[in-house]
Amino acid sequence: MEYVVSARIAQLQVVDPGEIRCVQLVLPDCVEIGGARYPLHDTMRPGTAFLAKPWGMRTDKFRRRMYTRSNSSCNEPGLLETFINHTHRPQADTSIWWQSDVADRWEETGKTLDVRVTVDESRGAATVYENTTVCKESNLYLEPDGYWEDRQFVCVAFGTGITPFLSYVCYMAHHSWTQRGGEHRGHMTLIASVRHEGQLMRHQDLLGLAQQFPQHFRYVPVLTRSWPNEWPFLKGRIMRLKALPSGAESIDLTPLLEQVPDLSHSDLRMCGSVTACRQLMQGLREQAICPRTVRTESW
Prior knowledge:
By secondary structure, this protein is of the alpha/beta class. It has helices at residues 94-98, 101-109, 163-174, 203-212, 254-259, 274-286; strands at 3-16, 20-26, 30-33, 36-41, 49-53, 55-56, 61-62, 65-68, 79-85, 112-120, 125-128, 152-158, 187-194, 217-223, 234-235, 240-243, 249-252, 267-272, 293-298. It is built from six helices and 19 strands. The model has no long low-confidence stretch (mean pLDDT 94).
């Protein structure tokens, strides 16, 4: 049986008007099932997604959707945050609703959305449902404590693909990248590629964390289509498409490798559009670059 709780829409923050919004849902402290009350524990792992049921503008009904969490349960338990973009696809449904005035009214009036939970009657408790509980090549579930702290992550995000990596950073900063025994050896480079400055998510927060943890965290924002005159960071795509005489395309990774020349000794994580992720993988194959590990989520 599937159990749900009613989560209040606490915030609908516009990141890029009509394109990207930050959504926050507040969970109740407990769930009541069959007359029994179960405390609700938020133990979601960074890189995982929760299941919610927003409204569909096209279908005119509630729809089941998985949303990757962008904050961390370790320092914001009970507050589910994610970034949602307008897909602009012909069959777009819930992505339209999230950008609409209707969603704004739901926030203003305190309306709720169902969020799936898992109930363990033997323990007398409920937890927030997660889309996965294991690390696989097809997901971005953060490695267990005691393993991630010693890794050299290079995380490449295209658009709202930054969402799981924001959760990574929140979690890692909360633990100060501490290895068991107090050693500090891990590092994460986050490359966030968006079209223009208004699409950068948590930009100032990430700049602050890079200053706070310079030995562990590096933030590289990239603007691909337009940028301010005084933009101090990367401009243009991190990979270039080259047309071959045969008509095929080759991928030049020079801009990316200028930022992370040691990619073959790193753990590569990618998230974003299928096209962008496939192009990056193609470039790696063409240049015979083999990172230590590669895991990707794309859509």
